[in-house]
């Protein structure tokens, strides 16, 4: 009798479990769009950026994660996506990139976006950007910056921060 009751409860709960775990595919979909931004440098990037922006703040954490391993052109695409999303919490991702990215162009792009946001009429976004810019200035004033290895830093050590260039075959020739 007890087994029947347990089975009945489990059967009653199954549709609810299925509904909560299967309805939201956004994590996977966001990952698909990020893959386009980090692996391609062609006409597929702008529509993927627009689709990614449609997820809003849901996409910020996955963009932050992708920032650590993407090639420079991919990191620039991710910064453009953060600009389209326009969420105040993106300022913290951009702050980190502006201080620690190994590529000067990427650091400059992140800081430039924060500078544009600092005068945005959306107060939460502008406040977050100004706070991030102040922290960037402070970190730089105390000597914090990118960890450079190999020819740009500690001799004989490979780079472990960011991807200085695309890994594998030349991506521009493949796409």
Write out key terms for the chains shown.
mainly alpha; 0% strand; globular; 175 residues; Serine Threonine Protein Phosphatase 5, Tetratricopeptide repeat; 9 helices
Q: Bin the helical content.
A: 55-70%
Rounded radius of gyration (Å):
21 Å
Distance between the termini: 63 Å
Number of strands: 0
Q: What kind of oligomer do you see?
A: single chain
Shape: globular
Major sheet: size, sense and barrel closure? none
Q: What's the CATH topology name of the domain at 25-143?
A: Serine Threonine Protein Phosphatase 5, Tetratricopeptide repeat
Q: What is the H/E order?
A: HHHHHHHHH
Mean pLDDT: 83
CATH level-two architecture of the domain at 25-143: Alpha Horseshoe
- Reading off the top of the CATH hierarchy, the class of the domain at 25-143 is best stated as Mainly Alpha
Please report the number of helical segments: 9
- Poorly predicted residue ranges: 18-22
- Structural class by helix and strand composition: mainly alpha
Percentage of residues in DSSP E strands? under 5%
Quick gist of this model?
The chain has 175 residues and is mostly helical. Helix content is 65%, strand content 0%. The protein has a domain at 25-143: Serine Threonine Protein Phosphatase 5, Tetratricopeptide repeat (Alpha Horseshoe).
């Amino acid at each position: 009798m007890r087994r029947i009751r347990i089975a009945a409860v489990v059967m009653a709960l199954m549709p609810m479990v299925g509904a909560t775990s299967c309805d939201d595919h956004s994590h996977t979909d966001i990952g698909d769009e990020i893959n386009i931004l980090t692996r391609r440098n062609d006409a597929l990037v702008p529509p993927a950026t627009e689709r990614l922006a449609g997820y809003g703040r849901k996409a910020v954490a996955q963009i932050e994660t992708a920032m650590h391993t993407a090639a420079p052109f991919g990191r620039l695409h991710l910064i453009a996506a953060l600009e389209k999303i326009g969420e105040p919490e993106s300022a913290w991702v951009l702050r980190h990139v502006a201080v620690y990215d190994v590529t000067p162009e990427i650091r400059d792009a992140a800081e430039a976006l924060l500078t544009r946001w600092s005068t945005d009429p959306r107060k939460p976004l502008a406040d977050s950007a100004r706070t991030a810019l102040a922290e960037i200035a402070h970190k730089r004033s105390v000597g914090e910056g990118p960890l450079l290895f190999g020819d740009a830093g500690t001799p004989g050590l490979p780079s472990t921060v960011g991807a200085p260039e695309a890994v594998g075959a030349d991506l521009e020739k493949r796409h």
